[in-house]
């Protein structure tokens, strides 16, 4: 894990290049690549090829490493920027620190040597710093540890159950460790010419809470004393008994250990290097918005689907911060003959979303390895990993997405899930929505709620509210006006049943738009006798077609999913599907269950489950179940029906991409070039992720665009093999057939 970056001044800025024209006025990719190469060194802010050598070395390491040869291998693989370690997870410093604990066998200034060698080769440098994994700090100062209510030191845990392994200790940033960190920042930035600081293991308590629900609060004496000093009369430990007290302490911790800590780190570094760039390991799904606004660019480790969609990159783009970056992890080169095609597909999935790529090496640099202290096999994989990126990245800077479908990313709903101690549910709803929308083949965006304005919303054809429970009056009015003017809305579950103050509403905030009223929640089938949601993929709700055209594919029988359901009263809406109740309520304690699985559907129905409503010039579909959250369980019907629904609701989108025959493993994107003269269409076949490196081609991808909004005059494949494509027109749409596309294909449409 990582988090931190260093800054660079205007000297680093990659010049914005006008696209040189080749034959037919298309961008000349070869000339662009040549110009890009001459622009070295490329800033860490701009490069699409950042490399990290993961370097969490135990005390036994002796550093018998040919650094010059290793950095030459990195450059040959395509690296334009490199990340070198100042402090690792063990808490070892890799330079002669007067503050920190130096690695016991470090016989030279390793970090300083790496910086000098890289800069000599016109490779820009980022300093890596592990903030909240530090074994040395905790082992030398046990009182600096993050501890739970019982006073037990907290550690990173690999695996679960009997397979669990305790690894890194986690220090508390309320302890004197905070000044220890700032002392290192002062040393690093007063001594070394680095462009960026990348802070890893940042906000670790909150990452663990978001990821697996671990209690995010420290109970060391330093934290308790700090709280009690700032909040006299409100003892720290007493306040966790109420949701209000819990949240107050949660926000206080966030402010101290993330926002304030980052401010202090940035101020210390910029005291010496004013142009330093900063990044942290984690995106909007991990950190509050004030962190996203402070960093120089947003970085996140990948959130992907099993079909290879880089969901995390879509989320990052939703913040509309330029130069967002995402990582790809490799395997240790000394373990196996890992096929480079797998990380190549994963990395291509990042540039398909225009995320800058960050290739993370799992221990590629180890004393005496392969005779020179580095893995030759790993560097060969790294070179293949960037085989497409290094040939097309000169075309990617400054491109802007073509807009069609948006998903509202509701930080307000996320805050509610945090207090409910259900942070993972928020992520599942968003990831599920973005995945399902991608399968529809239209351009997909995440719309951060702070960007939900009339001006922004009018750019989209469709908006999805995936289990968005909190909607302000202003947000609801913005959406209402947009639908009235012709927008298409899809909303699910308890949509808008809380206002901006988290006060419960008696009806949906958009009830008139949806054409249904809220009539309660049915929980009997989804929750056990103790009020706990039945675990896993336990089908507790069944739906069946009501004969509506939008449910045509589900007419044969019922379909099911986990979770409770919302009861509805239709006002102006048409019934699309209805609920069918389960055969019985499962109660294992009283010997009530059905065979080996959940109870099947019974005889009783329970009213409308999915409704369609016309509102003004627009339309809305309401779904009374947590359908996007349920995507995590991979129900075939959801993965098929949601894309079909979107295609039925918006039958003539601005742009669409359809593989023939259809495959969830083939997807792509549409981006305008900065001058808006061209559209870049990137098509990716990720089937090698399923076949473990065995390539399987596809027959055809059909690209269609609206002739009026995108008057395409020509089409050309520019990578991997240049060729012109025929453009035809039918029914107001331009059509381009991409026959036998490669693993990754870039097509340029001239408009």
Briefly, what is this?
With 751 residues, this protein is α/β, with parallel strands linked by helices. It is 27% helix and 24% strand.
What can you see in these coordinates?
- This protein has three domains: 4-214 and 250-397, Alpha-Beta Barrel (TIM Barrel), CATH 3.20.20; 403-649, Rossmann fold, CATH 3.40.50.880; 655-750, Golgi alpha-mannosidase II (Immunoglobulin-like, Sandwich), CATH 2.60.40.
- Helix content is 27%, strand content 24%.
- Strands 1, 2, 3, 4, 7, 8, 9, 10 and 11 form a nine-stranded mixed β-sheet that branches. It has a nine-stranded mixed β-sheet with strand order 14-13-15-16-23-22-21-18-19. A six-stranded antiparallel β-sheet has the order 12-25-26-32-28-29, covered by helices on one side.
- Strand 10 (325-329), helix 11 (341-352) and strand 11 (356-361) form a beta-alpha-beta unit.
- Helix 5 packs parallel to helix 8 and helix 14 runs antiparallel to helix 15.
Give the SSE map.
Elements: E1 4-5, H1 29-38, E2 49-53, H2 67-77, E3 81-87, H3 110-120, E4 124-130, H4 135-140, E5 155-158, E6 165-169, H5 177-191, E7 196-200, H6 204-212, H7 221-230, H8 243-270, E8 277-280, H9 289-294, E9 299-300, H10 311-317, E10 325-329, H11 341-352, E11 356-361, H12 376-385, H13 389-392, E12 400-401, E13 405-409, H14 411-419, H15 423-438, E14 444-448, H16 454-457, E15 462-465, H17 473-484, E16 488-492, H18 511-514, E17 516-522, E18 541-545, E19 559-561, E20 565-570, E21 574-582, E22 601-615, E23 618-623, H19 636-649, E24 655-660, E25 666-672, E26 678-685, H20 687-691, E27 700-706, E28 714-719, E29 723-725, E30 727-730, E31 733-739, E32 744-750
